[in-house]
């Protein structure tokens, strides 16, 4: 269990930050960009949960927030052994599969798309769409980090599936609020 009694340490004042193994890297490192984007995505999901006001996907999104904290820890753990252990958090195939099952369940309640949709609708859907876009950025950052250092492939797959899940959840939220906001190509020419 983590116990924080002091929030600031001053150890990052030199522009570096610590990884799980105690090593230090620049805060501008691609790995740190990915960790930061995952943190931002997690925060955006928190905003979406608040907009849901207890609606059905809130429990699912809370579980995802926990997974994203694990994913951040995964990204902050150097090495190329992605086997989880009692002391090492790693995203695993089962977490990706759980997201896929949630996508399939939510998508089964939706009509097929006949147009691209705009990220909007009711406040809950709009918040979920924003979280989706931030997750996409986190995925791009994780892929960029993987070009420089080993990154758990399941972490990248998880982010990829998560953005898909958030897309279908946003569509589901719009069912009760007038439906998807459809893109009208060239409408304002």
Structural write-up:
It is a single chain. A hairpin with a 5-residue loop joins strand 1 and strand 2. The longest helix is centred in the C-terminal third of the chain and has 24 residues, at 123-146. Helix 1 (30-52) runs antiparallel to helix 2. The chain is mainly alpha-helical and 189 residues long. The protein has helices at residues 30-52, 57-75, 93-108, 123-146, 153-174, and strands spanning 16-18, 24-26, 117-118, 181-182. It is 55% helix and 5% strand. The chain contains five helices and four strands; from the N terminus they run ββαααβααβ. The strands form two sheets. The protein has a two-stranded antiparallel ribbon with strand order 1-2. The model has no long low-confidence stretch (mean pLDDT 94).
The proportion of residues in beta strands is 5-15%
Rg over C-alpha atoms, rounded to the nearest angstrom: 18 Å
Which structural category do the helix and sheet elements fall into?
A: mainly alpha
Helix count, DSSP H or I runs of 4 or more residues: 5
The number of strands is: 4
Return the average pLDDT rounded to an integer.
94
Shape: elongated
Distance between the termini: 57 Å
Low-confidence stretches: none
Largest beta sheet: what is the strand line-up? 1-2
Describe the largest sheet.
2 strands, antiparallel
Task: State the helicity in percent bands.
Answer: 55-70%
């Amino acid at each position: 269990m983590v116990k924080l009694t002091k929030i600031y340490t001053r150890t990052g004042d030199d522009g570096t930050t610590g990884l799980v193994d105690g090593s230090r890297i620049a805060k501008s490192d691609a790995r740190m960009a990915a960790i930061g984007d995952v943190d931002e995505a997690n925060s955006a999901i928190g905003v979406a949960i608040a907009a849901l006001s207890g609606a059905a996907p809130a429990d699912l999104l809370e579980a995802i927030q926990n997974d994203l904290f694990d994913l951040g820890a995964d990204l902050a753990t150097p090495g190329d052994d992605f086997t989880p252990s009692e002391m090492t958090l790693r995203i695993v195939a089962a977490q990706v599969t759980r997201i896929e099952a949630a996508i399939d369940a939510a998508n089964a309640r939706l009509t097929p798309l006949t147009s691209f949709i705009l990220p909007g609708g009711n406040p809950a859907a709009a918040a979920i769409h924003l979280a989706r876009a931030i997750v996409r950025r986190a995925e791009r950052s994780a892929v960029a980090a993987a070009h420089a250092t080993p990154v758990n492939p399941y972490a990248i797959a998880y982010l990829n599936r998560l953005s898909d899940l958030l897309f279908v959840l946003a569509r589901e939220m719009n069912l009760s609020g007038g439906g998807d906001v459809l893109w009208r190509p060239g409408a304002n020419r």
